[in-house]
Amino acid sequence: MDSDVLLKIDAAFREDAAKHAEEAKPMFEVVAAQQQKFSALSRVLRFVGVTTLIAAAGVFLAQGWSGMDSVVRVVSFLGFTALLAAGGVFCGIGLKEDKGARTALALSTMLIPVIFSQLGALIYSLLPHVQSTGPGLFILTTNQPASVWFAAALGFFAIVPIVLLGFSSLARVRATTFAFAYGLANAVLLLPVRDADYVGLLSLGMLGSLTVLDLRCFHGDARLRNHEGRIARVLLFVPLLILIGRNLVMWAPSAIFESSVLAAIGLGLFMSVSRYTKRPQSIALSQGTGAFFLSLAWIVFAVGVFFLPGAYHYHYTLPDEYRLPISGLPVAALLLFLSFVKIGEGKNFRTLAGAVAIGTAILQLGTVATTSSSLLCIVTGIGCMVVSNLIEERALHGLGLTGLFVGIGYHIRYAVPLCTFSPWLSLATLGLVALVASSYLERNHQSLVMHIRKLRAILTGKGS
Fold first, then answer.
1. What does the pLDDT read at residue 399?
2. What is the DSSP string of 305-330?
């Protein structure tokens, strides 16, 4: 009897609790909806704030400074950056709001390379016999070394805490490493170097160093794979972009500078982007595009330095008959090398390398009809056949046969009407060398295959 009463009481309590929960449900839904609206509004306001601050920084740099001293301009922009960082600190400590604090501190950190670039312009203007070129908006000059060193010292004491706070808000676990690397990257902007050749090589070196640092220190850290960690990693490359952009705007480019920038883009796409995605289509696209830019970089370098020296004020020149081989054959070698280090199957790269090599040799025959050109075609064809047999790819073998037969046909064509001894002797010598090489390969092919496999394992990173 007592148990029945207790069961009835428990059921009544349950029914009452369920009724109250049902009544409170709409209230909870309303509160959740209001929170979502306020969250969306805060995101919109944050976006508007970021856009406005970036626009304000641009206007601050672009406004009429003609009547103001260059050092004052630098100090003024430093004050603007410090004020932005102070706003971030206020959001974090005063308002206890972390998203706005991180946004303001990240923006202030992003503006640091602009200050270094301005200080670099002042240091460069102190050198004797220099003249700044380019839009007047970006020219900063002074003849007062003491003012420059004062601005540099003031900037150092203001920049260090801004950078440390910025990276601490984005990636606290590696903030010191980020800040140190960021400082070194920005220090390059202080170097009084404006020659386009040196700046191009410097940019290429910076990209390589920053990429290696990112892949070795940050890419494998799971704590940096969130949104803030990605922003911190991207910030390291901002000084490099300003270094390249400054020379593009202020100084005349050169073949070495242009090829270095193209090579930097190619390396970034081929070596870096493919490490940040697991989608096969994205990897293939980034590495294919990277190979294109790397090939274009060599062509720009070869044409600008060796064949159009007057356009870029170089003093090297080569005869026109070397134009095709020097432009095309290194591209083929580059594509062959990339085929062994790329992610995934490299057969398409090797086929393309063979097509470029044989195509270059045949075009050379069509434009420079000499026995040397026919020998080049024969040697290129044999080279493709040797590589194809080592890696067992038929497409490359077919391309090599094409080059070999076309080269032999042209060689015989020149030998018959000229009735000279040299073409036949060179052809006979080449045939003898090929025969000896075939005997050597037949005898030692197993050892060669083992060496090729070890080399491929080393190139692809699978070897010890």
1. 85
2. III-HHHHT------GGGHHHHHHHH
Closest CA to 272 of 246, 223, 233, 305: 233
| Per-residue pLDDT tens digits for 233-291 | 989 999 999 998 888 877 777 888 889 889 988 988 887 766 667 777 888 888 899 99
Percent helix / strand / coil, the chain, rounded to 5: 85, 0, 15
Q: What does the pLDDT average to over 442-459?
A: 62
For residue 223, give both structure tokens. Answer: 């704590």
Write the CA distances from 20 to 10, 29, 82, 168, integer angstroms: 15, 15, 54, 46
| Alpha-carbon gap, residue 194 to 197, rounded angstroms | 9
Give, in degrees to the nearest 5, the angle at Cα 175 between 172 and 176: 140
Residue type, 312: Y
| Radius of gyration in angstroms for the set of CA atoms belonging to the chain, rounded to a whole number | 33
Of 216, 208, 157, 153, the closest CA to residue 185 belongs to 208
pLDDT one-digit tens code per residue, 364-400: 888 887 778 888 888 888 888 888 877 777 888 888 8
Q: Which three-class secondary structure state does DSSP give residue 168?
A: helix
Whats the size of the chain, residue-wise? 464
